[in-house]
Amino acid sequence: DTAVSQTPKYLVTQMGNDKSIKCEQNLGHDTMYWYKQDSKKFLKIMFSYNNKELIINETVPNRFSPKSPDKAHLNLHINSLELGDSAVYFCASSQESGLLAGTYTDTQYFGPGTRLTVL
Amino acid sequence: GIQVEQSPPDLILQEGANSTLRCNFSDSVNNLQWFHQNPWGQLINLFYIPSGTKQNGRLSATTVATERYSLLYISSSQTTDSGVYFCAVVSGGYNKLIFGAGTRLAVHP
User: Fold this and answer.
1) From the candidates B23, B49, B97, which should be mutated to test the interface with A, based on the most A CB atoms within 10 A?
2) Tens digits of per-residue pLDDT, A81-108?
């Protein structure tokens, strides 16, 4: 009964390749996110989607393209992979987005992470 | 933007000891969460606590929003408590969780 799942768990690839990471949540939430954790364990938001619409894009290079086919899925496609893209990528979800209320008072639930290694 | 500072950065304990982790933030928040990242990398929700006090077993947390800090208490620590503890906040609208740098905890038997 995994709430937020990601595939694959590990991804090793060469520079210049294109790869995708998939995320699914079965919590019935409306909002999903991608976060990046670097080698120093620092976590930073990349994107947020609410009901399949992009609402946050944190100045991420346009080689990264999120896609939300429905509100239960948020995939991350990365083109022309670079060494600096090596990191752990976490998907998360929450019921609220803060869009309507203007404040955000909800819990975010995280997936298990995908460790991407670019050689 | 809002700054989140956690202290101490590293903590080593003997099993059974108690500890207090601190999270300071530079602006008012309407959302604060504590997470535990276990040695396998999984991020586990501990508390959603924008204000007040909550307890869950050996863990408790207190946030004093007016003074812009939150504390996480771990009592009778166990080796399974090892990992990194993150504080994350949202300030204003939208839903960007801003994470602190974490406190790395090692509990030895």
Assistant:
1) B97
2) 999 999 999 999 998 766 555 555 678 8
